[in-house]
């Protein structure tokens, strides 16, 4: 099929590349000319394992092209994906500027039947509005179907998440487009959840909100467990055995960050308040998450009162492993807070070279801990979990490791003469 994907961010690039890899002819439209040129050469502007290789082979196979010419890409395509960013306004609401821009540019181009699929996470009712707007702008109703098909991919595992989703969520006004979508996704073996347009939007928000609430739940229990000398990893293991709870998203630590959870929770809270429903649980989840950096600073102060005068190395800057994304990164927030307190901070991350004022960033993991008094692990990259602790001990001046992600085995450290401070791990 001929497919146009508007937006070359995480979702747009993964969608374009995977669809092209499975035989569709994809034109990915991006406004930034430099980005288009880079992508045409097979260079990715983001770090996403496996994506560049697939992108290059799809370009070489002639199935994937990048362009800034929206009209040309739309005219030749039956399927139009909207995958532009919906960032957060300062009041927490979703900013639909890019989405609205696309609709304005798209409407005069729809002169034959098109299926317009929204991948972007948009506020409840946006796709219904999109349908009405297109009619208002004079597009005949027989020329299009709007579909809401939210994306659930995670950064770091984007390709595999798109190839093997647990479900495909399709929001529609009528069933006309469903068969075409099943042909488009012929390579996906997953149940289809068919609902109305707003239902699909809600499934996306509900999914991210539930996961964020789960993380805040375990982080709250970590605070209580810590006060009672209980190991939170035992608690997570114990409750996770119950299939109604499950093991996923029960890792206590610095809390959630990234481009989705913080933004989507705030947006859902606003949409709820707009209808006079106070979302107590969503508010609590955000409050807990926002309190974690202060909590860890207090914990560090309690355990190591002289930390402000120490040479501190922080391992990790991205919001989670296997990505170079630092949006809403709790690791970066911790680094910034420590710097504001006047600490002497040194940072290493396997893919991010953070430019935080008054900190020194390193390209080598072990060089970053030279003569350090204290090592803080803020993102659970595999390199850190599998570090050679004998080398760490030898390079550091001090012997304390603060594991803000509970990702390191305390006894491996002890064996190497290092002192371990985890999150609620007595
Ligand atoms: C998330 C959703 O998982 C995905 O379905 C959606 O499409 C986009 O948002 P992503 O933001 O890439 O994906 O990251 P995810 O792996 O979900 O982690 C989000 C944050 O939660 C990270 O900061 C991570 O460190 C944190 N987290 C996750 C925890 O603190 N504890 C956990 O147990 C799990």
Helix/strand layout:
Elements: E1 2-6, H1 10-21, E2 25-29, H2 33-40, H3 51-60, E3 64-67, H4 70-75, E4 79-82, H5 97-106, E5 114-118, H6 126-136, E6 144-148, H7 158-163, E7 168-171, H8 178-184, E8 192-195, H9 197-227, H10 232-240, H11 261-274, H12 280-303, E9 311-315, H13 330-340, E10 344-348, E11 359-362, E12 374-377, H14 382-385, H15 389-395, E13 400-403, H16 410-415, E14 419-421
Parallel strand pairs: 1-2, 1-4, 2-3, 4-5, 5-6, 7-8, 9-10, 9-12, 10-11, 12-13, 13-14
Helix pairs in contact: 1-3, 9-11, 9-12
The structure holds uridine-5'-diphosphate-xylopyranose (UDX).
Uridine-5'-diphosphate-xylopyranose binds at residues 151-155, 208, 211, 215, 249-251, 253, 255-258, 260-261, 319-320.
Overall description:
- The chain has helices spanning 10-21, 33-40, 51-60, 70-75, 97-106, 126-136, 158-163, 178-184, 197-227, 232-240, 261-274, 280-303, 330-340, 382-385, 389-395, 410-415, and strands spanning 2-6, 25-29, 64-67, 79-82, 114-118, 144-148, 168-171, 192-195, 311-315, 344-348, 359-362, 374-377, 400-403, 419-421.
- It is built from 16 helices and 14 strands.
- It has two domains: 2-195, NAD(P)-binding Rossmann-like Domain (Rossmann fold); 196-426, NAD(P)-binding Rossmann-like Domain (Rossmann fold).
- Helix 1 (10-21) links the parallel strand 1 and strand 2 (25-29).
- It has a six-stranded parallel beta sheet, sandwiched between helices.
- By secondary structure, it is α/β, with parallel strands linked by helices.
- The longest helix has 31 residues, at 197-227.
- It binds uridine-5'-diphosphate-xylopyranose.
- Residues 151-155, 208, 211, 215, 249-251, 253, 255-258, 260-261, 319-320 line the site of uridine-5'-diphosphate-xylopyranose.
